[in-house]
Amino acid sequence: VTLKVHISDASTHQPIPDALIEVFTNQVSIASGTSGTDGVAFIKFQYKLGTPLIVTATKHAYVPNSAPWKPIRLPVFSSLSLGLLPERSATLMVYEDVVQIVSGFQ
């Protein structure tokens, strides 16, 4: 099976190049690839119908994201889109009566 995965910035919707995409079953990586300049990766792997998979995307300075993938029939073509949120620095302060989160984003 070949799975087309499109990775984009969840805030700007711009493609994210060089994101690592991995396909997992039973917490074991069975395939991986890297997105191109258009944010797209084509991941090829052997698939047994009915096997639940998790597709993950990671990139430095972004919050990782994942999605389940379990077709009910063997697809001729399949595409999945994942949006990654940019990491933002913040300070967490816990007082006796309040929790304060101060974002570093201006």
Keywords for this entry:
106 residues, mainly beta, Immunoglobulin-like, four-stranded mixed sheet, elongated
Topology record:
Elements lengths: L1 E8 L10 E6 L2 E7 L5 E5 L8 E6 L3 E2 L1 E5 L8 E9 L3 E5 L4 E5 L3
Parallel strand pairs: 1-8
Antiparallel strand pairs: 1-4, 2-3, 2-5, 5-7, 6-8, 9-10
Protein name: Protein FAM171A1
GO cellular component, one term: plasma membrane
InterPro entries: FAM171 (IPR018890), FAM171_N (IPR048530)
Please characterize this protein's 3D structure.
- 0% of the residues lie in helices and 55% in strands.
- By secondary structure, it is mostly beta strands.
- The chain has a single domain, classed as Sandwich (Immunoglobulin-like).
- The strands form 3 sheets. Strands 4-1-8-6 form a 4-stranded mixed beta sheet, with no helix packed on it.
- It starts with a strand and ends with a strand.
- Residues 1-106 form the FAM171 N-terminal domain.
- InterPro entries: FAM171, FAM171_N.
- It holds the Pfam family FAM171A1-2-B_N.
- This is Protein FAM171A1.
